[in-house]
Design a protein that fits this description.
5'->3' double-stranded DNA exonuclease which may also possess a cryptic 3'->5' double-stranded DNA exonuclease activity. Functions in DNA mismatch repair. One of its GO terms (cellular component) is nucleus. The chain is α/β, with parallel strands linked by helices. The protein folds into two domains: about 280 residues, Rossmann fold; about 100 residues. Helix content is about 55%, strand content about 5%. It is built from 17 helices and seven strands. Helix 2 packs across helix 3. The C terminus is likely disordered.
C-alpha cells in the first residue's frame, strides 16, 4: 500500500523523520487522529482476532489516553487510476482461490496419513514378548547370563524409546502441517470485507463516540480514505493519520504506523520528508510515481533508490525519460503502450497527489459509551479480551504476499 519500499528509503536516508511511540496512545495523549478505517478494517479482518474486537481495543485505549479519533472511509466508487492495480489484485485472488482447492486436498491427504500412522504405531509395537531374554539358552555361568540379560534389556528398552521418540517427532510434524494447512485454507477462502462489514464497523465507532466521514467521490474527486485523512491533518482538524498507506507521507501529513504483534508504533513526519530527501514537494510526488504506487504503471528496472537518484538529478519523470531512451523502450516493451499513453496515465496519477479532497469545516465528537460498545460486541458473539491495541499480529508482514 502506498509508495513501494518508501519506509526502507526513509530508514536509509532520513531516519530522523521517524519517532517511536513506545507508549502508543499515551505518547500522544490529547491529540486527534484520523483513522484510515477502510484500510484498517481490511487489515484486522484478516487477523487472528475478530476485526470488531481489534477495533474495540483501539478505540478503548485511545479514549483512555484522551486521544480523539475520526473514522475515515473510502467512498463506494473506485478510482480510475487504480484500475490496473485492481486487476492485479483480482488475478492474485484468483491464484489464491486455486490454491485453496490444493490446500483442502492437502489437508485430506494429511488426515489420511495421520490415521494410517496411528494405526501402524499401536501400543503392541512398543512391547516385546515377555520372557524373551529368559528363554534364550546360554551355556554360561549365571553371572554371565545376567550380564547378557542386562545388555539385551537395555537394547530392547532403547529400541522402545527410539520408537516413541520417532512417533512423537512424526506426530509433532503432522500437527504442524495440519495447522499450517488450516491456516492457508482460512487465508485463501476469506473474501474481502463487504458493505455489511463496514456498516458494522461504523456502528461500533458510533457507540464509541467516534465521528465518521466518507470520501466524496463525485466526478471531480480523485481520492480515497488516506487522502481525506491527510487533508484533515493538513487543514488542522487532526494531528496524525493512522494508516498503513505511505501515500499519507506524499501528501505531507504525519503518519502513525502500527508495528503489529508486540511491535512499536511509529510516527513518520511527512511534513519534513521532502526536505529530508532534498526534494521539493513536486519532486517528492514524481519520486513516488517513479518508485511505484497504486496509481501509476511501474517503470521497469527502476526501484526506489534509483528513482530517488533520477529525480534528484533530473527533477521529473518526463525529464528522466528524455535523458534515458533505453528506459522508454523498456516501458513500451513491458506495458505494450506508447510513451505518450504512459505519460498520460502518469499525469492523471500526479493529480491524485497534487490535490486534496474536500473536508468538513468542523468535526463533532461524541461520547465514548462502553456499554454500547459491549452490546455490539455481544451481538456479534465477541467477548472482549484483556489485550490492548497492538498486542496481536494482524498479518501485516504477509498481506503484501497474499495480495490483499
Amino acid at each position: 500500500m502506498g509508495v513501494k519500499d518508501l519506509t526502507a528509503v526513509i530508514k536509509r536516508f532520513c531516519p530522523d523523520v521517524i519517532t517511536n511511540l513506545s507508549g502508543r496512545w499515551w505518547a500522544i495523549r490529547g491529540a486527534t487522529v484520523a483513522i484510515d478505517t477502510t484500510l484498517l478494517t481490511q487489515r484486522y479482518y484478516y487477523g487472528r482476532v475478530p476485526h470488531l474486537e481489534a477495533l474495540a481495543r483501539l478505540v478503548h485505549d485511545a479514549n483512555a489516553a484522551n486521544v480523539r479519533l475520526i473514522g475515515v472511509f473510502d467512498g463506494d466508487g473506485r478510482l480510475d487510476q487504480k484500475g490496473r492495480e485492481r486487476e492485479r489484485r483480482e488475478r492474485t485472488r484468483a491464484v489464491h482461490r486455486s490454491r485453496l482447492a490444493g490446500e483442502e486436498a492437502r489437508l485430506h491427504r494429511l488426515v489420511g496419513f495421520e490415521a494410517a500412522f496411528k494405526a501402524a504405531v499401536e501400543s503392541k509395537d512398543y512391547t516385546r514378548v515377555c520372557g524373551y531374554v529368559d528363554s534364550v539358552v546360554i551355556p554360561r555361568s549365571p553371572a554371565q547370563a545376567q550380564q547378557l540379560r542386562d545388555l539385551e534389556e537395555r537394547r530392547v528398552y532403547g529400541s522402545v524409546q527410539s520408537h516413541r521418540e520417532a512417533e512423537a517427532y512424526t506426530q509433532t510434524h503432522l500437527n504442524h502441517l495440519k495447522n499450517s494447512t488450516n491456516s492457508a485454507i482460512t487465508r485463501y477462502s476469506k473474501r474481502p470485507p463487504n458493505s455489511a462489514v463496514y456498516s458494522r464497523v461504523k456502528d461500533l465507532l458510533g457507540a464509541a463516540g467516534v465521528p465518521v466521514i466518507t470520501v466524496d467521490q463525485s466526478p471531480k474527486q480523485l481520492h480515497e480514505g488516506e487522502a481525506l485523512a491527510s487533508a484533515l491533518v493538513l487543514r488542522g482538524l487532526a494531528d496524525y493519520v493512522l494508516s498503513e498507506d505511505t501515500d499519507v507521507l506524499i501528501y505531507g501529513a504525519k503518519l502513525i504506523r502500527d508495528g503489529g504483534e508486540g511491535g512499536i508504533a511509529r510516527v513518520f513526519d511527512g511534513t519534513q520528508l521532502h526536505h529530508a530527501l532534498h526534494l521539493t514537494h513536486t519532486q517528492l510526488i514524481d519520486f513516488a510515481l517513479l518508485a511505484g504506487t497504486d496509481f501509476a504503471l511501474t517503470v521497469p528496472s527502476v526501484g526506489p533508490i534509483r528513482a530517488l537518484d533520477y529525480i534528484r538529478k533530473f527533477g521529473s519523470v518526463e525529464e528522466v525519460l528524455i535523458q534515458n531512451t533505453p528506459l522508454k523502450q523498456l516501458i513500451v516493451d513491458k506495458h505494450a503502450l506508447s510513451i505518450d499513453a504512459f505519460l498520460g496515465e502518469l499525469r492523471q496519477a500526479r493529480k491524485v497527489y497534487e490535490t486534496l479532497p474536500s473536508t468538513p469545516h468542523s468535526i463533532q465528537f461524541g461520547v465514548y459509551n462502553q456499554d454500547a460498545v459491549n452490546s455490539i460486541l455481544h451481538q456479534d458473539k465477541i467477548e472482549r479480551g484483556t489485550k490492548s491495541w497492538g498486542e496481536d499480529d494482524h498479518h501485516y508482514k504477509h498481506l503484501k504476499e497474499w495480495g490483499m
